[in-house]
Specification:
By secondary structure, the chain is mostly helical. 42% of the residues are buried. The protein has one domain: Glycerol uptake facilitator protein, CATH 1.20.1080. Helix 1 runs antiparallel to helix 2, helix 1 crosses helix 8 and helix 6 runs antiparallel to helix 7. The longest helix is centred in the first third of the chain and has 39 residues. It is 77% helix and 0% strand.
Amino acid sequence: MKKRSSEGETKRGTRSGELIRKSAGAAVLIGLGDYALLKLGNPIGPVIFALGLLGVCYMKQNLFTGKCGFLFEDKIKVSDLLIILSVNLLVGYGLGLIFSLMDGGIVESAIEKVGSWKMSGAFFLNSVMCGVVMYVAVKMYREGTPLGILFGIPLFIFCGFQHCIANVITMGVARGFSLTILVCAVGNFLGSVMMWAISREGKKK
């Protein structure tokens, strides 16, 4: 019995370690995209940002905004989704701090962006719409085409939709923090799940 219990704990530990590692990896990839956005601005930055989500999908990393719409479809545990979100946010913020030390030129831009985020209905709705775009982009990738990512990422950035992981990275660069990140995460989740519910196929007989 002790041996089986030990094996079970080892498997759970390995699984938890992989979950955390892949969640950290996703934050790093999105961080690269956000750095390009702050560094280059429009119109180049939003296009290059797409590399972040492409990397997440191709390398099978754990990104909250890429997973939450598949909560029911992939039977993801809510506890696992919360771990993914937590690691994405912590690593993303830390990465933003590192970027601020690497390149002081992007700090002012980040401060300006963070200062523009307010607790409002518009901010929440922009977060919901980002969730919709993210679900569509990842779903299309799963169906065999990266076009959803290549067009979807620039779309949500140009439209001003709010992405919680990108936002927390920008907060790190600005060396500040705002509770709008929680509103953004909820909106991203609702938008993704809503799009899943609308677009899912009924059970085949």
